[in-house]
TrEMBL record:
<keyword id="KW-0170">Cobalt</keyword>
<keyword id="KW-1015">Disulfide bond</keyword>
<dbReference type="InterPro" id="IPR000788">
    <property type="entry name" value="RNR_lg_C"/>
</dbReference>
<comment type="similarity">
    <text>Belongs to the ribonucleoside diphosphate reductase class-2 family.</text>
</comment>
<dbReference type="InterPro" id="IPR013678">
    <property type="entry name" value="RNR_2_N"/>
</dbReference>
<keyword id="KW-0560">Oxidoreductase</keyword>
<dbReference type="InterPro" id="IPR050862">
    <property type="entry name" value="RdRp_reductase_class-2"/>
</dbReference>
<keyword id="KW-0846">Cobalamin</keyword>
<feature type="region of interest" description="Disordered">
    <location>
        <begin position="880"/>
        <end position="904"/>
    </location>
</feature>
<protein>
    <recommendedName>
        <fullName>Vitamin B12-dependent ribonucleotide reductase</fullName>
        <ecNumber>1.17.4.1</ecNumber>
    </recommendedName>
</protein>
<dbReference type="InterPro" id="IPR024434">
    <property type="entry name" value="TSCPD_dom"/>
</dbReference>
<feature type="compositionally biased region" description="Basic and acidic residues">
    <location>
        <begin position="892"/>
        <end position="904"/>
    </location>
</feature>
<dbReference type="Pfam" id="PF12637">
    <property type="entry name" value="TSCPD"/>
</dbReference>
<dbReference type="InterPro" id="IPR013344">
    <property type="entry name" value="RNR_NrdJ/NrdZ"/>
</dbReference>
<feature type="domain" description="Ribonucleotide reductase class II vitamin B12-dependent N-terminal">
    <location>
        <begin position="53"/>
        <end position="143"/>
    </location>
</feature>
<feature type="domain" description="TSCPD">
    <location>
        <begin position="735"/>
        <end position="839"/>
    </location>
</feature>
<dbReference type="GO" id="GO:0004748">
    <property type="term" value="F:ribonucleoside-diphosphate reductase activity, thioredoxin disulfide as acceptor"/>
</dbReference>
Length: 954
């Protein structure tokens, strides 16, 4: 394999105008080998093996896909094998026409690209076409990159050759246009893709119709579109329908738009508390509206400056543009943050920033985005995506191979442009715009794993410098290659009209590249090469123009990320340090991510130290207090979730670092803890504007009610009550008649009474505390406190949580008690919750809290010292357990934590479920509708690592 040669273009300096005179007058691209060896086919370089793919639904154990005897390279994981076989192999399962080898899949796609490239004059000779075919084949075979899902679904089949996953539609202020919107969205959803659009041209509910009546406004028309999307959402081959609805901040109905989904979330809570099934996919959730779209408000610099200055802002009529109402900008911005805090919608898009980087302003403004906000361009357009696996360019010595990365980008961007030559599109306006502007979306995955492997914290200056340099190099090479292709097959049709603006944006990218502050050999080398590429691209493009109006975005890389065996998706940090891995031949295991030992090696740790730290991470899921790991290195291992999770602003700073080097934007949701405040959401949205982002969305943990529970999990919980995991709060009220007991107590001379009421199945459900004289302040406070604790217990807050929080509190009265099991108390609350623990918690939980009865303490002393000369190890613990259980006391030697953990970890079916066990709490993520396992974040949506299904993006 030779890595130093690349792909060149002959006569690329000639004008695009001349180049369009005919294929015979053009010289195609000279393609040189990067990965392959002359005379050796890529398939002959790897060892292949036969595998059986049997995928089950974890909820009920049924088989939802089965294909035996499929052929894959031995280095592909079982997860990647399963996903590719079930999602991308074409032909009816069980028929002779069904694909059964990765070779067939890659050949089906690559040969179509080469055929089309040859037909349209991209290659200088048949030999160049063959090299191009081998290079693409090698890269796909070795998981260096992947096209987006529609390519694998459609290219080379008898179906329409749709290659795009992202669409932007357009709607005007007429009933005909609105009905066309419904129809076009439905057609796109039926194929499993998604679309976005801006509704701001539709008159508001505060404006008049030509007939004299009042307009109904865009929000009313959203209801019909939402119902349509909800009906068609299961039509896709690997995901449900996804859509984005955008409204400008100066639209008179913007406040109604902002509160739309938050109000529906309130409705969900009321219906849930009334007993309706409001889980995602539940029987009654269909009665809730606006749940099939992501909503975003498009804000202007004028509005954000009004927020900053605390001044008012004008809302404008749609037809005349006149101001019909003035509002307090700060209050409106707060309503956006409040709604996002409550239900994660709306997101925010920064209009002036988006259009300042627009290469084609003479052809129209950018008004909307695709559902995940990474693709932003003209209305009625589309974008086909591909993503590179960054870890494939990290050498064993920890250096990032910038030259090899550049050569790979050349090949991929060339293939992506060729696809537009043969692609089909869902509507004629989309086809016309896409062929005229040829928008591409090259991106990458595994950034989080790369940063960790090189010893960089995700939220660090060094990490951001490397990410920015790589992104700059990727886009620089893409545009340089686009300029070279323009010299061979002509620039995009809309270039002539937008030449000045396009060149201006290229200079803006190059100027931003000069502002990258470097810290390490890696980012120094990458940025230096990026500087050269920007200079070359601008020089070539100044003569030839560019083949593509857009080149790069950062997509979520959900399904294709699993196809490439990536540890992290898109721009995301590592989800966790441990992950779930399926094994060939059946079974599964928990493993520590490969980036962890590489990171430790980069940081200078030696073999035995690395082994000890990795073993600690395997047991605990985090690095805090790992043996031999220096605290200053903890940040390198910070993840999206866990003991040390990355702060929300850390995610925003990473987005801001790479945004100046992307044609489009970034698919990413900034995850915020449940404890985050509305003010913090407001600040994140404000900082996104200040830092130059194009779009931003947040998700506060557990802000949504609709989280699905699988039947299998419920049945398991009923069989083993020790392992119940509550996914949402549901109040379980006590029956009218319930058992209770009253205990009198004395603490430090103060007398009182504790009454505890139980459920018939013997679980604590309420408490009443009488302390002080009736009508006194103390008595009133204790009544309110009792009510608060009782409601919390009925909503499922574990008693042990209250015990851990209120035991050992110190205030007067304190001192001796009249209870033989609790002889001393540091406060009344300390006594009360110790007593409740003794009466209602099992021994194992009390042992963790250090709370025992007098008999239990005596038995422990007897076990340790009461047998004369016997050593504690000689005590028959099982006999002791049995004898003491009979008397009501249960001293038990606790199992080593790793033994308990190993048994629990075997119950996980995905990395998310594994992290739940490590963290001891449920992850706020949906279950896969296909296989029932917990999904994990991928950009602004979720992906299932078990079957590859996504919640709306690919």
């Amino acid at each position: 394999m030779t890595e130093t040669v690349g792909v060149g273009a002959e006569a690329s300096g000639r004008s695009g105008k001349k180049r369009q005179s005919g294929a015979a007058a053009r010289k195609g691209l000279k393609v040189q080998r990067v990965y392959t060896t002359e005379g050796v086919h890529p398939y002959d370089e790897v060892k292949w093996e036969s595998r059986d793919v049997v995928m089950t639904n974890w909820r009920d154990g049924t088989i939802n896909f089965e294909q035996r005897g499929v052929e894959f390279p031995e280095f592909w994981s079982l997860n990647a094998t399963n996903i590719v076989t079930s999602k991308y192999f074409r032909g009816a399962v069980g028929s002779p026409q069904r694909e059964s080898s990765l070779k067939q899949l890659i050949d089906r796609v690559v040969k179509k690209y080469v055929e089309s490239g040859t037909e349209h004059g991209y290659f200088a000779s048949p030999a160049d076409a063959e090299i191009f075919e081998h290079e693409l084949t090698w890269m796909l075979l070795h998981q260096v990159f992947s096209f987006n899902s529609p390519v694998w679904f459609n290219v080379g089949t008898t179906s329409k050759q749709q290659v795009s996953a992202c669409f932007i539609l357009s709607v005007d202020d007429t009933m005909e246009s609105i009905l066309d919107w419904y129809k076009e969205e439905g057609r796109i959803f039926k194929g499993g893709s998604g679309a976005g659009l801006n509704l701001s041209r539709i008159r508001s509910s505060k404006e008049l119709l030509s007939s004299g009546g009042t307009a109904s406004g865009p929000v009313s028309f959203m209801r019909g579109a939402d119902a349509s999307a909800g009906t068609i959402k299961s039509g896709g081959a690997t995901r449900r329908a996804a859509k984005m609805v955008v409204l400008d901040v100066d639209h008179p109905d913007v406040e109604e738009f902002i509160e739309t989904k938050a109000k529906e979330e309130h409705k969900i809570r009321v219906l849930r508390d009334a007993g309706f099934d409001m889980d995602l996919g539940g029987a009654d959730i269909a009665s809730v509206q606006y749940q099939n779209a992501n909503n975003s408000v498009r804000v202007s610099d004028e509005f954000m400056q009004a927020v900053e200055n605390k001044s008012d802002f004008g809302l404008r009529a749609r037809l005349t543009g006149e101001v019909i109402e003035r509002v307090d900008a700060k209050k409106l911005f707060r309503k956006m943050a409040q709604a996002a805090w409550e239900c994660a919608d709306p997101g925010i898009q920064y209009d002036d920033t988006i259009n300042d980087w627009h290469t084609c302003p003479e052809s129209g403004r950018i008004t909307a985005s695709n559902p995940c906000s990474e693709y932003m361009h003209l209305d009625n357009s589309s974008c086909n995506l591909a993503s590179l696996n960054l870890l494939k360019f990290l050498s064993d010595d920890g250096t990032f191979n910038a030259e090899l990365f550049a050569r790979a980008v050349e090949l991929v961007i060339t293939a992506m442009d060729i696809s537009i030559c043969f692609a089909d599109f869902p509507t004629e306006p989309i086809a016309e715009t896409t062929r005229k502007f040829r928008q591409l979306g090259i991106g990458y995955a595994n950034l989080g794993a790369l940063l960790m492997a090189t010893g960089h914290a995700y939220d660090s200056d060094g990490g951001r410098a490397l990410a920015a340099s790589i992104t700059s190099l990727m886009t620089a090479v893409s545009y340089r290659r686009s300029a070279e292709m323009a010299g061979v097959v002509g620039p995009y049709e809309g270039y002539a009209r937008n030449a000045e603006a396009h060149q201006r944006v290229m200079r803006k990218h190059a100027a931003a590249n000069e502002l990258i502050r470097t810290f390490h050999t890696n980012d120094v080398n990458v940025r230096a090469l990026a500087t050269e590429e920007w200079q070359r691209g601008i020089e070539i493009g100044g003569t030839s123009g560019w083949r593509n109006a857009q080149a790069s975005v950062l997509a979520p890389t959900g399904t294709i990320g699993f196809m490439m065996d990536c540890d992290t998706t898109g721009i995301e940090p590592d989800f966790s340090l441990v992950k779930f891995k399926k094994l060939v031949g059946g079974g599964s295991m928990q493993i520590v991510n490969n980036a962890v030992p590489r990171a430790l090696h980069s940081l200078g740790y030696q073999g035995e130290q690395i082994e000890a730290i990795v073993d600690y991470i395997s047991q605990h899921g985090h690095v805090v207090d790992a043996p031999g790991l220096r605290p200053e290195h903890y940040e390198v291992f910070d993840c999206a979730v866990g003991e040390r999770s990355i702060a929300p602003i850390g995610h925003v700073r990473m987005m801001a670092a790479v945004q100046p080097f992307l044609s489009g934007a970034i698919s990413k949701t900034v995850n915020m803890p449940e404890s985050a405040t509305v003010e913090e959401v407001e600040d994140i949205y404000f900082q996104g504007w200040k830092l130059g982002l194009k779009a931003l969305a947040i998700y506060r943990d557990n802000c949504k009610v609709g989280q699905p529970l699988s039947t299998g999990k419920k049945e398991k919980a009923e069989a083993d009550p020790e392992k119940v995991v509550e996914y949402r709060p549901v109040r379980k009220r006590l029956p009218k008649k319930r058992p209770s007991q009253t205990v009198s107590f004395t603490v430090g001379g103060a007398e009182g009474y504790l009454t505890a009421g139980s459920y018939p199945d013997d679980g604590l459900g309420e408490i009443f505390v009488k302390l002080g004289k009736q009508g006194s302040t103390l008595a009133g406070v204790m009544d309110a406190f009792s009510m608060s604790i009782s409601v919390g217990l009925q909503y499922g807050i574990p008693l042990e949580f209250y015990v851990s929080k209120f035991s050992n509190l110190r205030f007067e009265p304190a001192g001796m008690t009249d209870d033989p099991d609790v002889r001393m108390a540091t406060s009344v609350l300390d006594y009360l919750f110790r007593r409740l623990a003794l009466d209602y918690l099992p021994y194992e939980k009390r042992a963790q809290l250090g709370i025992f009865t007098a008999d239990e303490r005596s038995a422990q002393v007897e076990a340790d010292y009461g047998n004369g000369n016997a050593e504690p190890e000689s005590v028959d613990l099982e006999a002791l357990r049995s004898s003491v259980d009979a008397s009501g006391s249960r001293p038990v030697e606790q199992k080593p934590p790793q033994e308990d953990d190993s048994a629990r970890f075997q119950e996980a079916h995905t990395t998310t479920e594994l992290m739940e066990l490590h963290l001891g709490k449920a992850a706020d993520a949906p279950l896969c509708m296909t296989c029932g396992t917990k999904m994990r974040p991928a950009g602004s949506c979720y992906a299932c690592e078990g079957c590859g299904a996504t919640s709306g993006c690919s």
